[in-house]
Write a structure and sequence with these properties.
Blueprint (H helix, E strand, L loop, with lengths): L15 H4 L15 H5 L4 E4 L6 H5 L6 E4 L9 H6 L3 E3 L6 H16 L2 H9 L23 E5 L3 H12 L3 E5 L11 E3 L2 H7 L2 E4 L13 H4 L7 E4 L8 H9 L5 E4 L19 E3 L8 H19 L19
Parallel strand pairs: 1-2, 2-3, 4-5, 4-7, 5-6, 7-8, 8-9, 9-10
Helix pairs in contact: 5-7
């Protein structure tokens, strides 16, 4: 039973290999009140964002396996599942390349504004100029700037590699020992990272300790010219504080692929800020990444049926890693 298959596979991919393993029913979306009735009788349930909490798990006596169609597994009550002997798996690292790519798509949107200038040319603003070139926004070179990364997991390390290729100086807040850091990355504490960085990119897990890691106080540490990027988890930042910081010139830009509430309410203060560049949680959604996601999810089911489960989630967290 797949409770919400649409985002991973809106029709351009196939569940055929999963169908070879048993009877499969795919729902595009499932409302909270529909979860138990739809999953009733299923031994295997796959979910992306549909919550399987303690109550749902207790009402599904035949359930033996939960496969999360994502890296983050906070949608499942892991303790309740383990008490029942239910195996829970996730799909790690499938979106690393795609999310890292989005980080720099956002960054270049701010520093080079290609979409803005393409629109300006379409509107005829270049045609009438007396010079061979035309620009009406600041243009920024990345080489030599400092790129601060909060969290140095798979995505954080890939982002670091790309930043280094741009000629940037990379510093990171990480639990890794200095000797374990890849070449070119310097370790820094949060206060130093925020105050020294021209770009700050968030790639840490969402936990009680990192919830609203970026708030009014930590924003005060950042350069007024700094660019903040969040492709990790929405609640890593206080949306209202960041909107306030943008309005007051506390930071130059906020780029995010995630928000605390998704989809956002119309009154979200970030949506009113011209220097907030928000994309609708799509960094993970390239066809290549979704294909890896589905293939690994099916491999997880196959391994479970063969009594050799893989990618098993071993403990509960407020949320999992910053990968999508």
């Amino acid at each position: 039973m797949i409770l919400d298959g649409f985002t991973a596979n809106p029709g351009d991919l196939s569940w055929r290999k999963l169908e070879k393993l048993g009877d499969v029913t795919v729902y595009e979306r499932t409302k909270a009140e529909e979860t138990v009735s739809r999953a009733a009788g299923a031994e295997i349930v796959l979910t992306n964002k549909v919550i399987l909490g303690r109550q749902e798990i207790e009402e599904l006596p035949q359930l033996e396996y939960i496969g999360v169609l994502a890296t983050g597994y906070n949608v499942v009550d892991i303790d309740a599942a383990h008490e029942r002997g239910i195996t829970v798996t996730n799909v790690p690292a499938y979106s690393t390349e795609s999310v890292a790519q989005m980080v720099f798509a956002h960054l270049l949107t701010v520093t080079n504004r290609p979409e803005h200038y393409a629109q300006q040319v379409r509107k005829g603003h270049w045609n009438c100029r007396p010079d061979f070139c035309y620009w009406d926004t600041p243009l920024t070179e990345l080489s030599g700037k400092t790129f601060g990364i909060v969290g140095l997991g798979n995505i954080g390390q890939r982002v670091a590699q790309i930043a280094l290729a741009f000629g940037m100086n990379v510093i990171a807040l990480t639990s890794k020992a200095t000797a374990q850091l890849p070449t070119g990355i310097r370790k820094a504490e949060l206060q130093t990272l925020l105050s020294a960085s021209d770009v700050v990119s968030l790639h840490c897990p969402l936990t009680a300790a990192t919830h609203h890691l970026i708030h009014r106080g930590t924003l005060q540490l950042m350069k007024p010219s700094a660019i903040l990027i969040n492709t990790g988890r929405g609640p890593l930042v206080d949306d209202a504080a960041v909107a306030e910081g943008l309005a007051g010139g506390r930071i130059a830009a906020y780029c995010a692929d995630v928000l605390t509430e998704e989809p956002p309410r119309a009154g979200n203060p970030l949506l009113q800020q011209p220097h907030a560049f928000i994309t609708p949680h799509i960094a993970w959604a390239t066809r290549e990444a979704r294909l890896r996601l589905i293939c690994t999810a099916i491999e997880n089911v196959h391994a479970f049926l063969g009594h050799r489960p893989q990618n098993v989630v071993g403990h509960s967290l407020m949320a999992s890693t910053s990968s999508k």
